[in-house]
Amino acid sequence: MNLPAIRYLVSSPYGDVPVDEDKLDLPLECDPLKTPYKVYLQSIKNFLEQDACNQLLKAASERSGGGVGLNGINEIIVRAEKHGALYHPASIELVLKEGRVKFGLNVAVSETGRAWLKKEFSIIQRINTRCKLPFLPEVYFFDEQENMSFLLEEWFDGYHEFHLSMTESGKQCMKLWAFGSGYKYLSLEKSFEIYRKASKILTLYYDINDFSQIYPWHHAAGDFIARVEDGGIDVRLTTARQYDPYMVFQEKEGINPAIALFYFLLNLTIKMRLDKLDGVSDTVWAEDFCLEASVKGFLDGLRLKEELKNYFSSEDEFFDLLKSFRPEDLKIAYGPLIGLCNGTGDYPVLTANLDRHVETLYATLRNFPS
Q1: Which CATH number fits domain 5-154: 3.30.200.20, 3.40.50.1970, 3.40.50.2300, 1.10.10.10?
Q2: Which of 195, 235, 328, 353 is deepest in the core (most CB within 10 A)?
Q3: Which tens digit of pLDDT belongs to each residue from 203-217?
Q4: Computed over its alpha carbons, how large is the radius of gyration of the chain?
């Protein structure tokens, strides 16, 4: 059987870099097991070629909308994209005789990462079937071999990570990690839209009836990605680690859905503001515009939820309830949410900024809906 040629690249902010064969014995970044790159790349090759590439060809046929066979692939490009605490994602690009098809491939090496990846596969499948929304990737197949785990999934082309950063003048800005064309600082207006759309996405996935929601997520992990073009801004969510009720709402009996929705909004407004500086440094807190964007995104999503009418005549009625809370009430309500973060790097930042956040949220809610 003649398999397509495979070319190995490393993605960088300024373009692809060919794999340096002299450095293949170096360990993967962030990997406590110190797995060499050559083992990582060989394992990806074995995963793709298993069963005569049938799983890969099946996924390619689904993505392209037509039958794809081995003889229709000129080349396979494997790119090492990034490295994280849990996964070592790559992209898999099939250069066809007519067009190209690209996938994401999450690779887990550590025991913890492998357990999470297997769980994510089933969770994303369940959410996509249940919610029928386009913001999470389609997942194609999962496999475990050679002490590694692999998940082939949809690749969101043109979307990039973003993180809070500091300009040379000391101003906080959002930076888009536009791999292939470099890092780009984004305007306040574009940053606002990214936060707004990310908040809308989480709200759309929130289930008012049983309180299920996507969590945990964090900007520092690159869980959200954005496509920023002249024609507008679009946002996607790269993963879902759990989809269950949060906090005490795991016991749903007797819980008022309005209270659960209220706590979802409170949590959304603080989690949306947290990141790590440049994605890797100290925890950082987004400026107040992020709070307004989060509330607007929440409202955008709420307006599209048919089940809202089972509890409120409109989203305006729910916001009238929110407006009844005084700042001291909001601060008390935040107590359990902040407590859940105790012991994490986010906790000191949350406690230091909570008072101002509560005052700003109170003022913001007074002006909504608008």
Answers
A1: 3.30.200.20
A2: 195
A3: 999 999 999 999 999
A4: 22
